[in-house]
Specification:
mainly alpha, about 80% helix
């Protein structure tokens, strides 16, 4: 059951990443579903004890607070703030720093891809490559939800990869 919940959560992250690339929007109901899946996973793992949940929720609240400050500065979108909180809810205090590093590295890759796509669109807008690059173009903003989804997928599947499908 827990493995299935983790797979569904990763599929949801893939959909969120796709939405961000296509429309630069992260639908709130999908992010809320990711949060609900965390609590379902906690119940399935018998980790829904107050001390465990408090640590995970505290990390999510901290991520939301930092994200809100970045949103106020114009450095992050509102959907990214909500998705970051959901990803860090899954990470908890144990995986928060590795998740942050993974998200930062993935964010760098996404930003470089967006810049390259912008150049390709500018140089060859009507070519097949230019049309394919258009959704990634930095002119529309960087789809940071892709980086958050990548880091989130590693956080969610990491225990499975390390300890097997029953974790």
């Amino acid at each position: 059951m827990l493995f299935a919940i983790r797979l569904i959560a990763c599929a949801l992250l893939a959909v969120l990443a796709w939405c961000d690339v296509r429309s630069r929007r992260l639908p709130g109901p999908l992010v809320a579903a990711l949060v609900a899946l965390y609590f379902a996973a906690a119940l399935a793992a018998h980790a829904a004890v107050a001390s465990v949940l408090v640590h995970h929720v505290a990390v999510a609240v901290a991520a939301f607070a930092v994200g809100t400050a970045l949103f106020a500065c114009g450095a992050l979108g509102g959907g990214d703030v909500k998705l970051a909180a959901a990803v860090f809810l899954w990470a908890g205090s144990t995986l928060a720093l590795p998740a942050l590093l993974l998200i930062a590295l993935a964010g760098l890759a996404v930003a470089l891809l967006a810049l390259a796509a912008s150049g390709l669109v500018r140089l060859a807008p009507s070519s097949p490559f230019g049309r394919a690059a258009r959704p990634w173009s930095a002119k529309r903003g960087v789809p940071y939800g892709v980086a958050l989804a990548a880091g989130g997928a590693v956080v969610i599947l990491g225990p499975v990869l390390a300890h097997g499908p029953h974790t």
